[in-house]
Design brief:
Layout: H1 11-21, E1 27-32, H2 38-51, E2 57-62, H3 78-82, H4 87-99, H5 106-111, E3 113-117, E4 129-134, H6 141-148, E5 156-161, H7 169-172, H8 178-186, E6 192-197, H9 206-220, H10 224-227
Parallel strand pairs: 1-5, 1-6, 2-3, 2-4, 4-5
Helix pairs in contact: 1-2, 2-4
């Protein structure tokens, strides 16, 4: 099946596409290392559903976490401060346009997706929409509960995360991050589908390097005092 003129390159990606299109599953959890195509397939499928008028809105939610040293205070209003964290969304939409066999305009597609910082979702209700929640491996139980319980009628939420790309120290110190525990707790529910993507579509060595550094980070957490110097 083709969405936005692109087709999943392996069975895992096609399974994720199928899960998102299946109306029986209101929560889709997609896990996998960097480069497996979680965002690509999720965003392309959501855009196709909007094109087909199956949903009215697409929301892209992520926690604006900085990797490395903090940049400090960012000037501007809420939208301007969040813009730097929307780079992955812009890259993914660009990749969809480049891979598609149909003519698409990048700005037109980006206009169809509203980016929201995680800390601004409380109190909102998402009706007739798809919510794509990215970088869930860094989220706490409270944050996951908050975003999932914002879903209204005829809506679907896609939770994306990589257990090897954890940036929050409190999550990295745990044997399993809160997102992994939540995914395992929800997996048996009829309205939930969990898809694990394992095949990297980047370079041949990308997944191996990701695994090596994940092990190094976790070993570092055994000495928290040294880590926090």
């Amino acid at each position: 099946m083709s969405v936005m003129g692109v087709t999943g390159v392996n069975d895992e990606q096609k399974e994720l596409e199928r899960a998102i299109l299946d109306n029986e599953h209101r929560i889709v959890i997609a896990t996998g290392r960097a480069g497996t195509g979680k965002d690509f397939i999720s965003i392309a499928t959501a855009l196709q559903m909007k094109e087909d008028k199956e949903i009215q809105q697409i929301f892209y939610v992520r926690d604006p976490i900085e990797v490395g040293e903090s940049l400090g205070f960012l000037k501007g209003d809420e939208e301007e401060k969040f813009d730097p964290f929307l780079g992955p969304l812009q890259d993914t939409v660009t990749a969809i346009v480049e891979a598609s066999n149909e003519p698409h305009n990048i700005n037109d597609l980006l206009y169809k997706i509203e980016g929201i910082p995680l800390n601004f979702v409380r109190g909102r209700t998402f009706e007739n929409a798809i919510v794509i929640c990215d970088e869930c491996q860094n989220m706490s139980f409270t944050e996951l509960q908050t975003i999932i319980t914002r879903m209204g009628k005829y809506s679907k939420i896609i939770l994306l995360g990589s257990y090897s790309q954890i940036d929050k120290k409190e999550q990295l110190r745990k044997a399993k991050c809160d997102f992994q525990v939540a995914a395992e707790a929800l997996a048996a529910k009829d309205y939930v589908e969990v898809v694990e993507l394992k095949q990297s579509v980047r370079s041949d060595w990308c997944a191996e390097v990701d695994e090596i550094f994940d092990g190094l980070k976790r070993n570092e957490q055994k000495w928290p005092l040294a880590y926090n110097k």
